Every structure is written in structure tokens, then in C-alpha cells.
Amino acid sequence: MAKPKYITSIAQLDGLDEREKSRLKAVTEKFVFRTNEYYMSLVDWSDPNDPIRKLVVPDESELEEWGRLDASHEVDYTVVPGLEHKYASTALLLVNDVCGAYCRFCFRKRLFMNDNDEVVKDVSEGLEYIREHPEISNVLLTGGDPLIMCTSKLEKIIAQLREIDHVRIIRIGTKMPAFNPMRITEDPSLLEMISRYSTAERRIYIMAHFNHPVELTDVAVEGLSLLQSAGAIVVNQTPMIAGINDDPDVLSELFNKLSYIGVAPYYVFQCRPTLGNRKYSIPVERSYEIFEQARMNSSGLAKRARLVMSHSTGKIEVVGMTETHIFLKYLRAQQDEDSSRFQVFERNPEAYWFDDYEDVVQVFDMETELYTGTS
User: What is the C-alpha end-to-end distance of the chain, expressed in Å?
Assistant: First the structure.
């Protein structure tokens, strides 16, 4: 299969009429647009609710003033240019500011704007920071998408990380296996590089990003299999997005298909309240209901995902709900006192984010092993 050509202008989309293209121009002037011919071949243009179309084709609702560009305050944890260090053992290295295509619900759309200075072309300062901090055992390469880079450039970064004794895990966050699987199937040097640096005691993890079962095409599955054969551990994470996978049948199908090919469902993210994301967001409690219904229709191996919010204070899992209360727990916390903290809140059907919960009922303190709160 030939490498797909990239599409960087709405005018190039044959599935849209001229009136639609004209209306969407204002959206693309604010938030970047990019896709490719392969990914567009998955669209059923006769279906206005086609999930692939909704994933990458702009929508006028994105112009609604809702949310913040940096909803999780990631810039607060930028310690040197291009490096975020929020949790002690994990560092995020932003290696580029380009993706194979741009999800309309992108949580980091600020990185693809002209005035962005969080991503740098030279990551040497970030690498030096990692060398000087022995508590960092995990490094996540992200951006942008690391696999949009040529293999030789990516290998230079991975080779330097492998020289750092305390870095045990290298993670590559990527949607290229869905957007452009030929990046994997047609580049033997990528697979050779992964085989070289993903060793028995120091694995490379591919954090894949499949949002809908339609993306798991034959060539995409082939690409994932090749990554596994090269020695990478492949897991999947996806946000829950309105109109795309906020259906228990769709989500369970995604979980099950991933389990069939040996790709563990890892995280389902609550959609961040990022600027322009109102249309794509679902209230937390509705997300939990959909998530649990999907898990009920999945086998044990397919139901390993956790529903989480990447909040500024940490990664917060939604662990349960009753008719009156919702239960949240920190999986990772920026502050030690929040580590593993279990909290009970009164339910709020209008809550889209952790900040929308105000009426805390109980908090479990890990140090004292006591519950505190109003009841």
C-alpha cells in the first residue's frame, strides 16, 4: 500500500460541499487541520454521524468559548523547555509539535498554535534534566506524535535515553497506528530500532490511541502486530468523546477487539475541558455509566481499562457511584498528601471535570487510615 498523502486544507476534502468548506474556514484559522487520504478513506460521507469524520473534520461548535487551552495546567510542570515533570518517577518529553492528523478534541491544541513555545526542536536540555534526576524511571515521548518523525531522528533520542541507567521504561505516545499504519508496515528500520532498544528488562511501550473500532483495519492490526513482534508492549488509551465512542456497544467492541489482538485497554480519559471541546465533552457521571456498561459486555482481559481524569493535581480515577454519591481516587498525585487519596462527593450530573465537584462527604487519609468529612 502506498504511503498516504497528507491533506492540510479543508478545500481538499471531496466529501464536503463548497458551502461547508466555506463555513469551516474560520475554525481552521483558529485550530489547525490536518489528515491524510488513508484515514479519510475510512469515512462514510453519506453518514453525517460518521465517527471518523467527527474525529478530524472541523465543526463550527469549536468556536464556542468553553474551556481553557491548558485545562490540566501542564505548563506549570514544565521544568525545562520541552520537558514536563509532574510525577516523581515519570517525565514527559515533548519531542515535536506535529501529528499525523489532528483530533478535533485535542487536549494539547495549544501546542499547534503559532505562539507556542513549549515544544523545542533540541531536546538536549530535557535529556540532561532526566540524567540528573535518578527518581525518573519512566519517560514518555509525546508532543505532537513521535512517530511522525523519521526513524533516524527518533532513534537518536531513544538511544540517549537508553544510556541513562535509571530510565527503565520508554513510552511512545502515538496515534500513527490508527492515522497512518503504513508508517509501521513500510519502515523496517522502525521495527529494527524498537527491537534494538526494547529489551527484556527495559521495555519500550507503545501507547496507542484507537478511539473507535472502525480504526482497527487490517493494515492497522498488522502494524500493531509488527510492533509487538519487534518487542514493544502495546497498550491503548482513548478519551471518551461525544458522538464517537460514548456508546456502550461501541466502547465494548473497541475493548474486545483490542483484547483479541493482544493490546491491553489501558485508560479511558474523561474529555479535558479544553478550549473548543464543549461539543465533544460528556458529564463525568454519564461517562462512568457508559464505561461500566461497556465493561459489562467485555471479557476480563478486555475490561482492564480505567476511567480517569488527567487533572492538574493528578490522575484521578472514577471508581464508583451510587444514587447519591460518586467515588474518586488519585492513581497518581502531584502532591504526596494526595497519593491514593479516596474521596466521596455528592453527585453532580452537570460536572464535566473534577473541579465541578464541591460537596466532599468523606476523604480517606492514607497516613492516618481514617476517614474525615461531613459524614
Answer: 62
User: How far is it, in rounded angstroms, from Cα 12 to Cα 244?
Assistant: 23
Give the integer Cα–Cα distance in Å for 158 and 204: 9
Which residues of 96-167 form beta strands (DSSP E)?
138-142
* Residues 6+ positions from 196 with CB-CB distance below 8 Å: none
Check residue 27 and give its pLDDT: 96
Give the pLDDT score at 68.
95
Cell of 136: 525518573
Q: Is the pLDDT of residue 373 over 90?
A: no
Q: How far apart are CA 35 and CA 4, in angstroms?
A: 10
CA distance 296 to 98: 37
pTM recorded for the entire structure: 0.94
Q: Sign of dihedral through CA atoms 365, 369, 374, 375?
A: positive
Between CA 207 and CA 72, with CA 92 as vertex, the angle to 5 degrees is 95
Is 185:226 a contact under the CB 8 Å cutoff?
yes
Phi-psi region of 166 (alpha: psi -120 to 50; beta: other; left: phi over 0): alpha
| Nearest in space to 194 (alpha carbons), one of 215, 217, 177 | 177
Of residues 65 and 359, more confidence is placed in: 65
How many whole angstroms separate alpha carbon 237 and alpha carbon 314?
Answer: 17
DSSP-assigned letter for residue 355:
G
What is the number of other CB atoms lying within 10 angstroms of the CB of residue 49? 9
* Cα distance between residue 5 and residue 3, in whole Å: 7
The band of 361, judged by pLDDT with boundaries at 50, 70 and 90, is: confident
- The CA distance from 250 to 265, in Å, is 14
Is 60 in contact with 24 (CB distance < 8 Å)? yes
pLDDT tens for residues 270-322? 999 999 999 999 999 999 999 999 999 999 999 999 999 999 999 999 999 99
Residue 375's pLDDT band (cuts 50, 70, 90): very low
Chain centroid to CA 64:
23
